[in-house]
Design goal:
The structure holds two protein chains of two kinds.
Chain A: H1 2-13, H2 15-26, E1 30-33, H3 41-45, E2 49-52, H4 73-83, E3 92-96, H5 100-112, E4 117-121, H6 131-152, H7 158-184, H8 191-201, H9 206-222, E5 231-237, H10 245-253, E6 256-261, H11 264-270, H12 280-288, H13 305-316, E7 320-326, H14 330-345, E8 350-355, H15 362-376
Parallel strand pairs in A: 1-2, 1-3, 3-4, 5-6, 5-7, 7-8
Chain B: E1 6-7, H1 15-29, E2 35-40, H2 45-48, E3 53-57, H3 58-67, H4 71-81, H5 89-103, E4 119-124, H6 128-140, E5 143-148, H7 158-181, H8 187-212, H9 220-225, H10 228-232, H11 237-256, E6 261-262, E7 268-273, H12 281-288, E8 293-297, H13 318-326, H14 333-336, H15 339-352, E9 357-363, H16 373-384, E10 388-393, H17 403-421
Helix pairs in contact in B: 3-5, 4-5, 5-6, 7-13, 8-11, 12-17, 15-16
The chains are: A alpha/beta, B alpha/beta.
The structure holds iron/sulfur cluster (SF4) (2 copies).
């Protein structure tokens, strides 16, 4: 088990060196993909390694010469890493319009350290999924296919794209299986390890990740399981960035067991497959417009995040929800009061924890979580 | 001690009744059996041109509340309801008002309350425009339409985006307006709005000429207050009359050598980026005036179609015409309002209006104008040698407005200008 985990942890403990080392060894291009909606499959089909950009491992310093402190950690982190020269191993970067702050990052990067390849997709929200929306989105994805193909010197055919979608679907279905196991056997793995498994999927070649995942799942399915005592909690939110592992440890140390989530570096990342059809770009377009899990950034009025959470909590028989809110993330900030109201009406206990780039006061967070645990009651 | 500078405001009192008329019409609309649309972003024109539906331009409500000292009460209501303080204050204003309506909370000034909408139109110029629309939808459940209006990364993208927006408007928005209002969208109405709006903008542009004079005849704040007629009275004769009166005042001033800054004109001509600080216009100008500094031009106040000659009321496709103005017309809002085109626009304003220094108003909660501000300052400083500073604050939330910090930054800017003049 430990051996398998090492394969994942290599990437999460120092993604910069691990990816660079992979690149050196494989002599392939690395493409940074801004979270949360862009189909990595297109870069994979171009024979490159797509990596989802991440919250960095050190304090923001130089970045503050470019963005204000009240920008979200995703924005600040990528800017800071870029101006410090930490992202030089990325041959290309793909950005998107998904919120205001995602739009700013490419502007700053172009102004300071433009990568060899850059693309910016105007991915629309998903309210209406009208013909206009679908046609436009398809055009955006086609544009990426074309420009990445040119950058890589080889056309990205439908066959190649379908092959990549197949590999990615497999990865998603394995991750969903991992989550199923955790739902049935709460606490089977520490939350920090689950996070590392998911996060590493965003950083390493999917084929390699699939192999490790298969081995991990086989162990988890065949090893014995000692039920873990604690209150079952659902983790919600945390758009774009991964939460601090120390925070997950704290939740568990206080006697709560995360049994499921809808965080981005979690279920949200692998929830939806793209179909294998003779029109792969069409399939990726369709996937963009899937309305669940509710994504407050993607925008939707027909489904309701609060109700979705109530259903999930009931199905899991969970005791409460820990909302992880990426600090200064307007899509989540704007939605949160309504989620809170729906949860309160349904009698589901909930606590809010803000996730900054660096958590300044773990003590403050601990106090909040401790009171929440007391509210949930005994072990 | 040197000269004692004083501000010499233009008479903009004509705005008040015009604004009141607009809000009263909105309040009376329901009694007349009309439907109401609340619109964020520039999509308000489509319900406006349709019979039986009144159109509320949501950003205007912020200026209205801010200007009349009503904002704090509404923002407090939002907080009481549970709104997060890091959301933009325009979001909190509307959700605060919604909370007051839902909970029947007492209101000290009943003017704060607007009639609840039958249709919500989120013109997603800024992505957050749709988030506050969704929040209102979740609370009241009315029909909601969202039109994606991306700001462009490059001029090459503009035709593609224009087509996308036009398709959305025709496919989704117009049918929704027609369904809710029970009336056909009226092309001729829209043409008439364009005709008289164009006339008003032509006169408005003549007024802008007086910003070029050194010393200037008026300040950006005078013009900021005067934006209202473009919206509230868009396409109505009152808006033209308002600008004609403004022009007359400016011509008189020019003739008599009366300047915006008494006694002998401004010492520093400043560019102001971002929203105008609606609740704090007086406070900000009082910081500047002792130094003889005034704001002269800004990207936001200039976004309201600075090339009226390009407005074509007789365009074949009048629905598309509005979108063309936003995308591929010379004053391409969708490019200039984003970070990439913003710099081009600011450079144009700096050159046209002989700017000495730049103030970038960075709202802590509205990031639309903040995007890339520091980069733009650095780039322009390198190119023109004109210094700039960022000042943090908020356009209406008084808890986020720090006068001392603002004073320090403005003083620092003026000192830098002085040092470069030597
Ligand atoms: S969705 Fe939220 S966290 Fe992600 S870039 Fe936008 S504001 Fe930041
Ligand atoms: S963030 Fe700014 S531009 Fe966007 S809706 Fe809020 S106030 Fe308006």
């Amino acid at each position: 088990m430990e051996e398998i985990m090492k394969g994942f942890v290599k990437y999460t403990s120092d993604p910069y060196s691990a990816i660079e080392e992979w690149k050196e060894k494989n002599q392939k291009k690395v493409i940074g993909i801004f979270p949360m909606w862009l189909p990595e499959e297109i870069a994979h089909a171009a024979g490159m390694l797509p990596v989802v950009m991440w919250r960095s491992n050190e304090a923001i310093t130089w970045g503050y010469a470019h963005v204000p402190p009240y920008n979200c950690p995703m924005n600040k982190s990528v800017v800071d890493d870029a101006v410090k020269g930490k992202l030089k191993f990325m041959d290309g970067m793909v950005f998107l319009r998904e919120c205001l702050q995602s739009q700013e990052v490419p502007f700053i990067i172009e102004n300071n350290m433009p990568p060899a390849f850059e693309e910016y997709l105007y991915m629309p929200p998903i309210y209406h999924a009208s013909n206009a929306d679908l046609e436009f989105t398809r055009g955006e994805l086609e544009r990426l296919r074309k420009s990445l193909g040119e950058f890589g010197g080889e056309e990205i055919t439908d066959e190649k794209l379908n092959e990549s979608i197949r590999i990615y679907n497999k990865n998603r279905s394995l991750l969903r299986r991992l989550y199923d196991i955790r739902r049935k056997k709460p606490g089977i793995m520490p939350a920090r390890d689950i996070l590392k498994v998911v996060w590493s999927s965003m950083l390493m070649l999917k084929e390699d990740h699939n192999k490790l995942l298969e081995a991990l799942i086989s162990r988890l399915e065949n090893n014995g399981y000692e039920p873990v005592k604690g209150k079952k909690v659902f983790l919600s939110g945390c758009l774009c960035i991964h939460p601090q592992v120390e925070l997950l440890d704290m939740i568990e140390d206080l006697g709560m067991i995360p049994v499921d989530d809808d965080i981005y570096v979690g279920y949200r990342y692998f929830a939806n497959d793209a179909e294998i059809t003779d029109d792969p770009i069409g399939a990726l377009t369709e996937r963009h417009f899937i309305k669940t899990p509710v994504d407050p950034a993607r925008g939707e009025v027909e489904v309701n995040w609060g109700k979705e959470l109530v259903d999930k909590v009931k199905r899991l028989n969970a005791d409460g929800i820990v909302t992880l809110m990426t600090k200064y993330c307007p899509p989540h900030l704007c939605y949160y009061p309504d989620v809170k109201t729906v949860l309160a009406d349904a009698g589901i206990p909930e606590v809010l924890v803000e996730i900054e780039h660096e958590i300044i006061s773990y003590e403050g967070v601990k106090t909040r979580l401790q009171s929440f645990k007391e509210m949930l009651g005994g072990v | 001690m040197g000269t004692e500078y004083k501000i010499n405001k233009l008479d903009t009192s004509g705005v008040g009744p015009l604004v009141d008329k607009h809000w009263n019409e909105l309040r009376e609309a329901k009694d007349k059996g009309m439907k109401i649309a609340w619109c964020s972003g520039p999509m308000f024109i489509y319900p406006y041109a349709t019979p039986n539906i009144a159109s509320h331009f949501m950003a205007g409500y912020a200026a209205y509340c801010g200007g009349r000292g009503m904002a704090d009460e509404v923002l407090e209501a939002a907080e009481r309801f549970g709104e997060m303080r890091d959301t933009c204050s325009y979001h909190r204003l509307h959700t605060g008002m919604a909370a007051m309506i839902m909970n029947d909370w007492p209101v000290s000034n009943p003017q704060v309350i607007l009639p609840t909408p039958d249709l919500l139109i989120g013109g997603r110029f800024c992505t957050e425009m749709s988030h506050y629309m969704e929040a209102i939808h979740r609370r009241f459940g009315m029909k909601t339409v969202t039109i994606e209006l991306p700001s462009a990364r490059s001029r090459d993208d503009l035709p593609r985006l224009e087509k996308f927006v036009t398709n959305q408007v025709k496919e989704t928005l117009i049918p929704a307006i027609e369904e809710v209002s029970g009336s056909k969208f009226d092309e001729e109405n829209m043409r008439n709005i364009f005709r008289s709006w164009k006339e008003a903008c032509i006169i408005r542009n003549k007024c802008w000429e007086f910003f070029k004079r050194k010393p200037s005849s008026w300040t950006l704040w005078d013009y900021g207050v005067s934006i209202a007629p473009i919206f509230y009275a868009m396409g109505k004769p009152e808006s033209l009359e308002y600008y004609q009166d403004l022009l007359k005042q400016l011509e008189e001033r020019a003739e008599k050598n009366i300047y915006a800054v008494h006694p002998d004109g401004e010492k520093y001509r400043l560019y102001w980026d971002g929203w105008l600080p609606w609740s704090f216009l007086g406070k900000v100008i009082r910081i500047m005036i002792p130094y003889g500094a005034i704001p002269i031009a800004g990207r936001y106040p200039w976004e309201f179609f600075s090339h009226p000659d390009d407005i074509d009321p007789e365009a074949d496709d009048i629905i598309h015409e509005w979108i063309r103005l936003i995308y591929t017309s010379p004053n391409t809002l969708s490019y200039y309002d984003g970070p990439w085109g913003g710099q081009d626009k600011i450079e144009e304003l700096i050159e046209t209006y002989s700017i000495d220094g730049m103030l970038f108003f960075s709202s802590k909660t509205c990031r639309m104008w903040n995007l890339g501000q520091q980069e733009i300052i650095d780039n322009i400083e390198k190119k023109y040698g004109i210094p700039g500073v960022v000042i943090d604050g908020d356009m209406i939330d008084s808890t986020m407005f720090a006068e001392d910090q603002m004073r320090t930054r403005i003083e620092a800017l003026l000192e830098t200008i002085d040092a470069r003049r030597k």
